[in-house]
Amino acid sequence: MSTPEREPRNARASTGEGLDDAVRSMLLLMPRLVGRAKRIPAPEPLRGLSLAPRHLSLLALLLLDGPMGVNDLAARLEVAPTTVSLMVGDLGRQGVLERREDEADRRRRIVAITPARLPAIEAWLAPGAAAWRTALGPLDTAQRRLVVDTLLAYEAAVGRERD
């Protein structure tokens, strides 16, 4: 019975120094990151709502970038506009989001967090944004891009492995 060949721990030729050590560190770190994120309780005003991770991404965009149209949200979330419309409708029924006319183009609708829910959403998501600012702040633009690109590549690779 043959076993897959494994690169020796000290091999540094094409994979770079310490690749296995970096992989090991990330495999240990990722469950801790996810665990910490899951332990952040929703603020009391939001606890009874049905909020999925995709809703949090939408809320984070609106919190950080302000009100915007469905097509803009869809492009930034990398999903179809119909998906965003369904999420906005769902969160609208729960009193989290509102649609209003765009003052510049009355045919266009703008999505915003409702004033009543804004303080709770800010209190919930702001610590995560602050933590990322602390972690990414010392890096230059290229280094930040590398971190983001690396996490995106990891997400894509995990998706390919699971499919």
In short:
The protein has helices at 19-38, 53-65, 70-77, 81-93, 118-136, 141-162, and strands spanning 68-69, 97-101, 109-113.
Strand content: 5-15%
Biggest β-sheet strands, sense, barrel:
3 strands, antiparallel
Rg over C-alpha atoms, rounded to the nearest angstrom: 20 Å
Annotation field: number of helices: 6
Q: Which parts are unreliable, with pLDDT below 50 for 5 consecutive residues or more?
A: 1-14
- Overall body shape: globular
The topology string of helices and strands comes to: HHEHHEEHH
Strand order of the largest sheet: 1-3-2
- What's the rounded overall pLDDT mean? 86
Computed structural class: mainly alpha
First-last Cα distance:
28 Å
The percent of residues in helical segments reads: 55-70%
Can you count the beta strands? 3
